[in-house]
Design goal:
Layout lengths: L32 E5 L1 E3 L2 E8 L3 E8 L6 E2 L2 H6 L4 E8 L6 E14 L3 E11 L7 H4 L5 E4 L7 E5 L4 E5 L12 E4 L1 E3 L2 E9 L6 E7 L7 E5 L12 E8 L2 E15 L2 E12 L14 E3 L1 H4 L2 E6 L4 E6 L14 E6 L5 E7 L4 H4 L7 E5 L2 E2 L5 H7 L7 E8 L2 E8 L5
Parallel strand pairs: 4-9, 5-8, 15-20, 16-19
Antiparallel strand pairs: 1-11, 2-3, 3-4, 3-7, 5-9, 6-7, 7-8, 10-11, 10-21, 12-22, 13-14, 14-15, 14-18, 16-20, 17-18, 18-19, 21-22, 23-24, 24-25, 25-26, 25-27, 27-28
């Protein structure tokens, strides 16, 4: 079953200078393919990569990132990395100016799998990312998938493995794949398709393929007359991106088409960007497709030939499930085992139960919150309509017991 979680939206960078080159990863001598295991946490692909040949760090594998980014400057400072120049960049809220530094010649190793001898990366001045709040796990940066693009890239969400194939030996051997042409622009992949917000409307759209987004679909409102929130969409905190929290709307669209395949009732997030839609860095796109939808397929990407292959997986026909409580929760504290209410949707079951922003969840279903991780809590809040959830919160030093009756919100 697809899960709705609080997510980080893919990253948008406006560089004032040309992008620095990346040499990319190489397979060990004599290897024609390798399997790179990954963790799949709250709908993010997370790779463990050694930084400068020594320190193991966690990076999000991101097809929606133009550059590889280190979000923890204290790490590069510890290695006495020299910064060549300063960049002004814009975060994924499309408004907030951020500062990053160019670092050259960084080595990355995935032991016995692949190595990148000399990468140019961006280092953020501050940790604007704060991914820990949304996933409850340390993440140190974003690995642009273009670093692997000299190879055919297969993402197997079910096995939690990225396979890199030497293109000389790669062949599509399985039946059931469909191929889609993709466009490479500023190190990112886009494809053209159609979607129906309502059953009687068909809109041609260009979507970014974004494994750095832990959501099904994000659409930019007003980039097309037929791309707008449905009438029953709810105001919502879309999530956290570089630059801050993103506000918008959440609803279900009727259908999105992916080659020979279609997905219906897709939970979709809408962000207002009408004044920016023609800027170069948006590449005239209408939105993005994220992991929660991509993970229903076996995905193969060929950057050099401009192709994406999709094959339905075991979750292909599952319903898209959205939160049924009205709560947005972040993880804080030691080992990210303290859970704070970041937002309460007005008129939702949580609001009706009297839960407030800033409350700390200390127990759920008579179990101390420390026994849960953030994904566990999200799953509880997505249970069937009518389910009663007992929650104990701490507010100004007092323990308060609340009861939420879950119901459909979109």
């Amino acid at each position: 079953m697809a899960k709705k979680i609080i997510f980080v939206v893919g990253f948008i960078f406006i560089l004032l200078l040309p992008a620095a080159a990346q040499t990319g990863f190489f397979l060990p001598k004599g290897r024609k393919q390798v399997d790179i295991p990954f963790e799949y946490i709250n709908n993010f692909i997370i790779l463990t990569v050694n930084f400068n040949g020594f320190l193991p760090l966690k990076f999000i594998f991101d097809t929606g990132a133009e550059h590889t980014i280190l979000t923890k400057r204290d790490i590069s400072d510890m290695f006495r990395v020299k910064y060549e120049r300063e960049f002004r960049v814009t975060g994924s809220d499309l408004k907030t100016p951020l500062i990053a530094y160019l670092a050259r010649g960084i080595r990355f190793d995935i032991p016995e799998k692949a190595y990148a001898p000399s990468e140019d990366i961006l280092v953020l001045q501050e940790d604007y990312f704060r991914f820990e709040e949304y996933a409850g796990v340390d993440v140190h940066g974003i690995m642009s998938s273009v670093a692997f693009s000299k190879y055919i890239i297969q993402i197997n969400y079910e096995r939690r493995v990225i396979t890199l194939y030497d293109r000389e030996v790669f062949k599509i051997r399985d039946n059931g794949f469909t191929s889609l042409p993709v466009e490479l622009y500023r190190n990112k992949l886009y494809f053209n398709t159609t979607l129906q917000v309502l059953p009687d409307s068909v809109a041609p759209v260009k979507l970014l393929i974004d494994t750095g987004a832990g959501l099904p679909l994000l659409l930019f409102s007003d980039t097309h007359p037929l791309v707008h929130p449905p009438t029953n969409a709810i105001p919502s905190n879309i999530g956290m991106g570089l630059g801050g929290y993103l506000e918008g709307y959440t609803g279900r669209i009727h259908k999105v088409t992916l080659g020979n395949f279609a997905q219906q009732g897709v939970v979709t997030y809408f962000q207002q960007v009408d004044s920016l839609q023609n800027l170069d860095y948006l590449n005239k796109r209408n939105g993005l497709i994220g992991n929660t939808l991509l993970s229903r397929f076996l995905v193969i990407l060929d950057y050099q030939k401009g192709l994406m292959w999709l094959k339905p997986g075991r979750d292909y026909e599952d319903e898209f499930v959205y939160d049924r409580s009205g709560l947005s929760i972040i993880a804080t504290g030691r080992k990210f085992s303290e859970y704070i209410v970041q937002n309460v949707l007005p008129g939702s079951p949580a609001a009706e139960a009297g839960i407030e922003r800033g409350d700390q969840i200390i127990a759920m279903r008579r179990t101390p919150a420390g026994f849960f991780n953030l994904s566990d809590i999200q799953r509880v809040l997505q249970k069937k309509p009518g389910k009663k959830i007992r929650i104990v919160v701490k507010r100004e030093g007092k323990r308060l017991t609340k009861k939420i009756v879950l119901r459909e919100l979109i």
